[in-house]
Amino acid sequence: MVPGSEMDAVLEAFARRFNASPELPVMTTGWDRTILVRAREAGWTRTLRVQGGHLRTLGSEETPEGADIVLEGASDMLAAIFRGEISPTEPFLDGALMVRSSETDMMKLDVFTIMVWGA
Questions:
Q1: Alpha carbon distances (Å) from 12 to 15, 91, 100, 119
Q2: pTM of the predicted protein model
Q3: Which residue segments constitute the domains of the chain, with CATH numbers given?
Q4: How far apart are CA 74 and CA 101, in angstroms?
Q5: In the chain, what percentage of residues exceed pLDDT 90?
């Protein structure tokens, strides 16, 4: 089980990689979304915000009621995905990663998956 404090560091590193990418900030300009990352077994929820072409972490202090996208799964799996150790595709297809979003956002996430994880 990954504690929330460790996940904070994982998400901060992911945000740095995302923002350093030449393609991702350009692709997300105008796509302002709040993303909730939840690990029920670990008891934590973290929030990411894509705004103005940049990704930032909001941690657990700013957990919005109406997130645009919700990613939910085991803390170990979520940490491995955001570290880049595994692609989210297989856990999603196996039902281990739950994603709630609009169809449009799901298509955008599919493109990000290919760009970030190459899968």
A1: 5, 22, 22, 22
A2: 0.91
A3: 4-117 (3.30.1050.10)
A4: 19
A5: 71
